[in-house]
Amino acid sequence: MTIPQLIRDRRDRWADQPCLQTKRAGTYQPITWSAFYDQLLRVARALVASGLAPGDRAAILSHTRFEWAVADGAILTAGGVNVPLYPTLTRREVGSLLERSGARLLFVSDPEQVEKCAPLLDEVPGLERMVVFESAAAATADDPRIVSLDGFEGDAGQVDPAEIDRRLAAVAEDDVATILFTSGTTGEPKGVPLTHRNILSNVEASLAHFDIGPGDLSLAHLPLAHILERMAGYYLMLWSGATIAYAESIQTVAQDMAQVSPTIAVTVPRIFEKVYAGIQNKAAEAPGPVRALTFWALGVARKVGEFQAEGRPLPGGLKLQYAVADKLVYAKVRAKLGGRIRFFISGGAPLSPELGKFFNAIGVRIYEGYGLTETSPVIAVNTPAANRVGTVGRPLQNLEVRIAGDGEILVKGPSVFSGYYNNEEATREVFTDDGFFMTGDIGEIDADGFLKITDRKKDLIVTAAGKNVAPQKIENILKLSKYIADAMLYGDRKKFISALIVPDPEWLARYVDWKKLPGGSVEEWIADPQVVSYYERLVDELQTKAELASYERVKKFVLLPHEFSADDGEVTPTMKMKRKAITAHHQDRLDALYEENGGGTAG
Questions:
Q1: Which CATH topology does 3-171 take?
Q2: CA nearest 132: which of 34, 65, 80, 82?
Q3: Which of 13, 240, 342, 375 is the most buried (most CB within 10 A)?
């Protein structure tokens, strides 16, 4: 099986059934398998007419949308290789990746991408044409090499449909299907070629643990340039027959979820952090009795989550409280998520165990998984039959996973790539002599076979005293507070741990109002000694409650006025922190913490 063969097979099986949904004029419209495949074939024939040969690369620069799927399926059906790019990349970054991959054609989504990338047609060797999903955006470009998707499809008549059949039949499962450039939390992005076998073996092994089928609807909202959404939110759904609805944007996920009522969704922990913060914010704004009820219900959920995680039955009194809280509060939260959600798959970054327990307790099931671009991506995942909060589940059955002497997770199997694109040196660095891929993550496997991630090997902080500190664990502890929106630890080779802390602006404003402090902006508030003192006490309380060792505790910190931003190059498109970039932006302030009397202090 190859990806284009999978798509054709499902079209034959479910021709008149809905395959995708896209929002048009504010309303979600269904697209059948036949309609999807017919357009895909037209674009595939147009690609052949444009001179795309088997093995040639074509790139897609777009946010997640229906046309992305059409372009991807067309490239693969024509025998090409898809190079997906994040729409947040700069012109220079896009040009570099197009040149490195040797892409001949570029699909883009909208006017912003046209304006950004039009000059690349003259700057990137071998780039011949740009196809624009939005017709109006193409019309504004005074260049015959820039054409709308509709106009491009008009070239399909130049190619005999039988040529597409020949191309599709010639695609082999060990052919490269895509070259993904890692989002690069450290250093220059590396090209990761994945074959049809890599990806579909991961789809099949993952689906062995989940009951997903034609009755399901998934809301796609993560970047399709990322392998998590590509495999789990796209190809896996095509394989199983679930319908995919495309969110308008990452900012509209809450509204789109309420509108389409998904049964499943693939997402990242940051979404759950935002939902949890939103529940607390709405509770705080509610009238007194409602506010008290909601915060009481949140407390009940946290208690219930602990019992559930330990597999213990609820005591009678807590069971009664839970039933009341579920009817009055939790049911409303589920309704906001569309009312039909069966479960979420969470990946891309560690999920706080406390958040996992909370959402499971209120009836929003989250199954956390783990993997990398190089592993297509899933290595391990929690499932309905085996779910342990605080772990990333058991490894997939078609993979070998072992823990090296230094704690690094090693993996081998059909979904693991064979090496970086045009980079033999980097490839040699990530494989053991016996062929295991070195993930760069530190972890352990418990007695029941569940994998637990401690941290990224490169992210581990080693203090001046030689103590190893896993920053993500402590950052998640801090972010559990409604007063903290984000946090990043610092302190490698230093005598103590420090942090950059981003206050939640809404809760900070409430504190300022309560204390009647002067100033009218976040920048002014975080400079106020009373605010700094409050955050010192808060950080100390959070760390004491978590029973952190002395060497793990944040001793000093800097308060920042805004969250880490993709626009500033501080987070990846999937919202993972780029620690080196963040550190570089705030190096002077971090250095000042290690001077006497520098920064806020915590016990």
A1: Rossmann fold (3.40.50)
A2: 65
A3: 375
